[in-house]
């Protein structure tokens, strides 16, 4: 068709281009630009310290996304908006922050937090770090071959919890048990005793310093005990305190199992250990005064069975006590011959009437003879019930003497101690009284030794 004027409006800065099948002067659509044809210089200028983009979470025109001078901010998305600010945790990939990227630290410090409440990490000294970890003043040292780190106990260390040692605990310095309670004086028998003094009880203290106004019983110990718990009980008073055995006045799990009552005299001590299998306290030391020191204020020497004393026998400073033996003894000999005229029976020879109490040493001898011929004779030293000693002899010929000597010890005799004999061969046997001419052929002696 005929040509015509294609006009541009003055000052419009339009560009002649085809659009919708028509050439006109206007803005250029995207297709009018060749790829990579728009240089940086052709873009409009941006504000200082800014990026061209769209900060909103929607499609629309680009705009400057600016940063403040000196802010060291990072352009990132936050709350659905792109802006320049600090990076949140999610912006960092796992293991992406190296040691070199962390803030520098003071020498000999670790990262921890000693300030109360949640907050930023802090550079902590060794003392602060041990406090946070609950190690007190202990250092850390690798010991043994297991590689386990344990506190190095080279200073004062207090362990408030339970520490379990599965190996041998080798103390090469003195061990110290300093935890104790001095309980309120006992003024009545105590069941399920707690050794209380204010807020202190045997539940938290190992050494129990107890006392009483008179001789009192403690029937059990209630310390919240478990297997292996140990308590040391000291009687620091002047009166006896009796730890009663298996006493039903205390709860079963708090009772003592000693085999008998244990009396703690003044200044005596005993160590007990809890046996959870039987649920009882057992003694691992005997009740005694502490060894290794102390002062003896008096010593008493007392008489006993077969022992007499005289002079100053309760000695407080100095004195002389004479001790002598005075053992009871009895001796008797037969005055006439004793005929053994029944081969089935024993016939009594010499005897003594010592009574039935005490322990006795008995010794004696008899001479026997059979006028008919060779004979087997049996003899025994006894109390009519219990045989102390016995023997058999054989005479060499008719009217030939044989001697039998017997001795032994017997407690609480049932009757007179004597020597009895039986001729098992004939009825012609004799226990002689004076075959030697000294009238002591049949003699027995008994000495009380206890």
β-sheet strand percentage: 35-45%
> Which residues sit in consecutive blocks of at least 5 with pLDDT less than 50?
none
Give the overall shape. rod-shaped
Distance between the termini: 160 Å
* Average pLDDT level: 89
- Secondary structure: helix percent: under 10%
Query: Main beta sheet: strand number and arrangement?
Result: 6 strands, mixed
How many beta-strand segments? 33
Oligomeric description of these chains? single chain
Supply the number of helical segments.
1
- Over the alpha carbons, how many angstroms does the gyration radius reach? 55 Å
Please explain how this structure is put together.
With 450 residues, the chain is an all-beta fold. 2% of the residues lie in helices and 36% in strands. It has one helix spanning 126-132, and strands at 15-19, 22-26, 50-53, 63-66, 74-78, 81-85, 110-112, 122-124, 139-142, 149-152, 180-182, 207-210, 216-218, 230-235, 241-243, 262-264, 268-275, 280-283, 288-289, 299-300, 307-311, 314-315, 321-325, 329-333, 338-340, 347-352, 359-370, 376-382, 387-394, 402-411, 417-423, 429-432, 443-448. The strands form eleven sheets. Strands 11, 12, 14, 17, 18 and 19 form a six-stranded mixed β-sheet that branches. Strands 24, 25, 27, 30, 32 and 33 form a six-stranded antiparallel β-sheet that branches. Strand 9 (139-142) and strand 10 form a beta hairpin.
């Amino acid at each position: 068709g005929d040509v015509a004027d294609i006009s541009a409006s003055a000052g419009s800065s339009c560009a002649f281009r085809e659009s919708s099948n028509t050439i006109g002067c206007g803005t250029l659509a995207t297709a009018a630009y060749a790829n990579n044809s728009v240089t940086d210089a052709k873009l409009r200028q941006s504000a200082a310290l800014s990026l061209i983009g769209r900060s909103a979470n929607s499609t629309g025109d680009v705009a400057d996304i600016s940063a403040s001078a000196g802010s060291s901010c990072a352009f990132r998305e936050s709350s659905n908006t792109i802006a320049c600010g600090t990076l949140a945790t999610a912006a960092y990939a796992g293991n992406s922050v190296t040691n070199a990227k962390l803030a520098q630290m003071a020498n000999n410090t670790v990262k921890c937090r000693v300030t109360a409440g949640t907050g930023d990490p802090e550079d902590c000294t060794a003392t602060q770090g041990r406090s946070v970890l609950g190690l007190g003043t202990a250092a850390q040292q690798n010991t043994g071959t297991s590689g386990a780190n344990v506190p190095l106990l080279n200073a004062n260390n207090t362990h408030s919890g339970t520490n379990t040692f599965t190996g041998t605990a080798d103390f090469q310095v003195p061990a110290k048990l300093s935890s104790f309670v001095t309980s309120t004086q006992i003024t009545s028998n105590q069941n399920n005793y707690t050794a209380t003094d204010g807020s202190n009880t045997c539940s938290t203290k190992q050494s129990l310093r107890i006392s009483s106004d008179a001789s009192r019983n403690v029937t059990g110990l209630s310390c919240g005990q478990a297997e292996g718990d140990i308590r040391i009980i000291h009687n620091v008073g002047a009166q006896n305190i009796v730890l009663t055995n298996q006493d039903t006045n205390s709860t079963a799990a708090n009772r003592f199992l000693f085999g008998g009552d244990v009396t703690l005299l003044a200044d005596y001590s005993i160590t007990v250990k809890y046996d959870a299998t039987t649920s009882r306290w057992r003694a691992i030391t005997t009740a005694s005064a502490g060894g290794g020191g102390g002062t003896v204020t008096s010593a008493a020497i007392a008489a006993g069975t077969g022992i007499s004393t005289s002079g100053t026998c309760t000695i407080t400073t100095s004195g002389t006590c004479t001790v002598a033996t005075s053992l009871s003894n009895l001796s008797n000999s037969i005055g006439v011959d004793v005929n053994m005229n029944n081969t089935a029976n024993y016939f009594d020879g010499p005897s003594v009437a010592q009574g039935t109490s005490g322990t006795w040493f008995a010794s004696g001898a008899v001479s026997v003879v059979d006028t008919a011929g060779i004979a087997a004779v049996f003899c025994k030293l006894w109390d009519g019930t219990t045989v102390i000693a016995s023997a058999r002899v054989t005479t060499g010929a008719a009217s030939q003497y044989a001697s039998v000597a017997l001795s032994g010890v017997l407690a609480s005799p049932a009757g007179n101690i004597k020597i009895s004999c039986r001729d098992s061969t004939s009825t012609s046997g004799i226990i002689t009284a004076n075959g030697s001419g000294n009238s002591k052929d049949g003699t027995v002696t008994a000495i009380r030794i206890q």
